[in-house]
Amino acid sequence: MEYYSYIKEFAASYIYEIGESLEVFSKALSSHFQLSVLIALVALYVAFRNYRRKSGVLIYGGASISKDHLSSHPYVSDLILENQKDRAVTIYAIYLKVGHNYYLEIENLENNPLVLKPYESLRKSYTRAYVYSSSTSLVSLRKLLDDRNVKRRVALSTAMGRYIVPARVNHWDPIIDSFYNVLTITVRPWKIEYKGICLGDNVRYCLDVMSASENRTVVITGSNLTSALYGIRFPRDTLENVTTLEDYLEQKRREGVIPPGVNIHITTIEEVVGNQMDVFSAEKEMELPYYSFIFFKVVGRALSIWQRITIRFTNASMRRKHKKNRRKV
Fold first, then answer.
1. Could you read off the pLDDT of 55-101 as tens digits, one per residue?
2. Helix (H) or strand (E) holding 116
3. Where are the alpha helices (DSSP H) in the chain?
4. What distances in angstroms separate CA 259 from CA 205, 238, 239, 250, 251, one per listed residue?
5. Residue 16: band (very low, low, confident or very high) from pLDDT cuts 50, 70, 90
6. Cβ atoms within 10 A of the Cβ of 96, count?
7. What is the dihedral of CA 174, 176, 179, 181, to 10 degrees?
8. Coil, helix or strand for 273?
9. In angstroms, rounded to a whole number, what is the distance separating the alpha carbons of residues 266 and 250?
């Protein structure tokens, strides 16, 4: 009996150890399986993204409609196309779909197709139209193009067939924000160039140096620094006017600093700028102040609302005055 009980206890402990081993193995197997599933899902997502990136056509863009005093017909003035795929697209013609059934030809590229490279952006400008025609008849698009309720989309003739550009490119401009907050101000650089050299406001004169061996332009500022003109320093009193500068250069020529046979033509910064600065209301610069975040958001927004209200009342009073004058006439 003792022998059988010993065998029974040994078998029970052995079976228990086997059960524990199987449980540990199952846990390890489940963890490995979960990791494998996770890796497979990541690989599937990457493969799907690569497939979406390489397949099909996805182009964003839009066309701008303009009208000026030289023509009574509205016309497509600007076109923007952005390829969102990692594959090139061949374009044979560009149209503007007006409404549901009209296609205004913007550009015919049958003889020289346009290849829009992967992730490439294209911007083109076009001139006004004299007339519009369909077959042998003259047609007018004035009402359709002037009506903002009429849907307009860019249509492309591609190697895969017709493609309607799904959305316009939303270009941000701070001028749009200025309509909602008057403290939003756009500042642009005003550049002046002379023979390929971008001039700063410290430049006083431009010297054209001409000889048999050289032909270059040297700019002279108001600071008494070593210049590129043979290392000559220009004191302030020599830059008072063109005459004093010519006398100083002649002196350097007699001293042998300026080689013989070198001709120097002097052009003042006023001659370079000319009347380009007349567009500004004042010559004196206005130092821009710093506004805190709260001041910009609260006060700027309040000023914008007040400005909008005053403009509305001003326009309403002008319309009433105009109606009274028409009645008197």
1. 778 888 888 888 877 788 888 999 989 888 888 889 999 999 998 88
2. strand 114-116
3. 2-54, 142-146, 174-178, 242-254, 269-273, 293-294, 300-328
4. 20, 20, 21, 11, 12
5. low
6. 22
7. -40
8. helix
9. 13
The pTM of this model reads 0.55
List the beta bridge partners of residue 180. none
Number of other residues whose CB lies within 10 A of the CB of residue 205? 20
Could you say which DSSP state residue 214 is in? -
Question: Which tens digits make up the pLDDT trace of 240-287?
Answer: 888 888 888 888 888 888 888 888 888 888 888 876 666 666 567 778
Q: pLDDT tens, 189-211?
A: 777 888 888 888 888 888 898 88
What does the alpha-carbon distance between residue 325 and residue 329 come to, in Å, rounded to a whole number? 6
Residue 295 has what DSSP assignment? I
- Cα–Cα dist 63/61, whole Å: 7
Please report where in the chains the tokens 């009996």 appear, as a residue. Answer: 1
132: which strand partners?
A: 139
Nearest to 305 by CA among 206, 180, 174, 120: 180
What distance in Å separates the CA atoms of residue 87 and residue 159, rounded to the nearest whole number? Answer: 13
Residue among 137, 148, 133 nearest 98 (CA): 148
> CA-CA distance, 243 to 266, in Å (whole number)?
10
Give residue 214's Cα distance to chain centre. 40
- Estimate the share of the chain in helix, then strand, then coil, as percent rounded to the nearest 5: 40, 25, 35
Q: Token pair 């390829």 is at which residue?
A: 83
CA–CA separation, 154 and 169 (whole Å):
12
* The length of the chain, given as a count of residues: 329
